[in-house]
């Protein structure tokens, strides 16, 4: 390299020796061309060797990483976030980005279902645009998409195959399915199936719920209608998000007639949009409440801890809630405090909750029973053959036997929500151990009902469950 | 950083000022400890921050790569090689590594099929060992594995979801299925299905055939039997490679009785082992023959060109064979020569073959007909209902109508093999355009028969087909 530089400088010198005024003119022309190109900045992709070097660099460092041994201290949340197109669920991306930025991995995933040829074409054409959106919005995340026969199949592919070497997901981040009560049974089955798949493939799971929901595709489409210039690039979502497409049609056909209704929709969209930017803003003074109810390796503690070291969340203090016996409150507090200080995690307060396992009050329970009523089979009121037939036809429905067997667990979720309302109503964020259901034993709708009742009427909730891999350590 | 260093040095100085002999003793002890640790080299994984930095580095450079725009000049073969466990098909890995090393991506893939719980456990436990094997053998490749219901499903996941950002596969590398005639029909269906899937997902395909086959798992298992010390780590393959497992059982039960047979097996294994190392050695003086029969974007030319710039293959010269009309041989030669020199690809010779499209000689054709005989339906000799029924029951069989419709194409493959025997029998490597079959139109067995007859009795053959993306350019 240095020899080349020396040679080049020598040549420049020799130019002047041979004919000084010709050399001067040459330099003047060169300088003019250089300034011209710099000033005009023509948008040309030269396919330069610098670009090739980026590839070699990325490859080499990914290969170097494979030689590094795993260590609990170097655990990082490497998240697979089911955002769909990243602009459609910005809040989900924001919160995931908050705990993966700079030291973790974030992959925004989209699954295309439908005829393969069409899907692949749509997918490949959108790939670059969506990655560019992430870069433009300063999200350090990758975009990945697959075409599959069903949503669950697609996610299964992503859970297993995405990532390169060590940079592969260890945690699934998914928004809470708000419309589980009105959605078709197959959608609910897929949703719960994905959670089971993630556990099977030894990933942790984080389900995030905000009261307004994450999906703002309808707002994007309305915006697209108002500003036709940005309508075109967004038309691609229509195929995938057909539900929102219908709403969109409803908007242009109905709203002109019924202005009151359209105003309602506008207001609703406004609130949706506000909710979608809530994690972009700096969080006010407050608390992040951690309800650490099971030991899952520490992910439930690690995620909020990482949040508190971010600029946006630094005004939030950690409060820990955990179960305990009424006669040993002080002892358990001390044990927990020493454990956390060993983990070098700063906390503002520890609360030992003794009355988790008591029965919930009647009203809450009645509410829960009413909620699951449409999904119950009530097989005990029917004769055997009809019951058997019903069970076979609608395996996703809640049987009486199942409800009886998991009564304690249902009580617990309802009771937990009461406690959450009592203690954490004003928190900025709640991080909560996610209840798990054995595959096959608990029907999909009962599980969704648990999640629903657990996280109802609360500030943003993160339901977290690690895969029993330790992610925290005493050793420094 | 410099301030810290200055502070540290200052402290050392102050130590001496305060109490010079105590400082000296301290240094002596420190030095002793340092030498002790360096000498003993305890195998401890400290989970150091250096290791964490590797991760951040890899992530940052992968993210930086996503901002780079695609350009034909920066096309690199990024291969998904279906090697199974990388030690089982070393020759397939070697040849792939030869054209991906340092400037392309190579992912060694394995698919586990069977009960999910078991598969995932086996998969995750083998993951690190297999990546370590790659590192130890200086293969710049990643290992990836998935558990799926069927082999094809697993490969589908890998084709779509593997890789991160820009570092994702664009070419599928797969060994030729040697045992297609004896294997169950579902296996053949899966194999051909994978090739179709790859084209659907817009990847290129490279099928590699060496006369001995790639899979040396039986040799590994026999070795494992002789040297019990290395038997244990290899026991994990048994589950996956059940066919070889049977052979292994056959070896320990039968070979003790029938020594002649076991000697045959030993000889066979020896040859298999030799074949498996053929791409590890430096290639002798000779040629790489490129039969460029379709324009697929240039992958068929690019792969052998990359090989010739490697040390091991630098003694091999490129010879180009392509079709043409008998009255324009010299013209077409000139056109091709100027095209290749524009691509800056050095070649030793160009041959224009005029008699590709004539009928093959009778013997070769008879051989082909005999080969496909067991897979033919012969529906025209039967009455309509039986024929229809047979067609429904065995959709993978070759119908008379199909054979008639694709007679020209079958002729062509047989004729091509004749030409290959004539011109390229002595080449070090043959690179050949892969014939493609429209999905549904050509039955799986007819397609396999084409590949079989095309690449029969030849030196190692690479059948290549790009995805019609240009990979070569005039512009420098």
From TrEMBL, chains A, B:
Residues 1-80 form the Amino acid permease/ SLC12A domain. GO terms for biological process: cell volume homeostasis; chloride ion homeostasis; potassium ion homeostasis; potassium ion import across plasma membrane; sodium ion homeostasis. It is a multi-pass membrane protein. It holds the Pfam family SLC12. It comes from the Eukaryota. One of its GO terms (molecular function) is sodium:potassium:chloride symporter activity. The keyword Transmembrane helix applies. Residues 89-223, 262-476 form the SLC12A transporter C-terminal domain. GO terms for cellular component: apical plasma membrane. Keywords: Membrane, Transmembrane, Transmembrane helix. It is found in: Membrane. The chain crosses the membrane at residues 6-37. This is Solute carrier family 12 member 1. It comes from Junco hyemalis (Dark-eyed junco). The lineage of its organism: Eukaryota, Metazoa, Chordata, Craniata, Vertebrata.
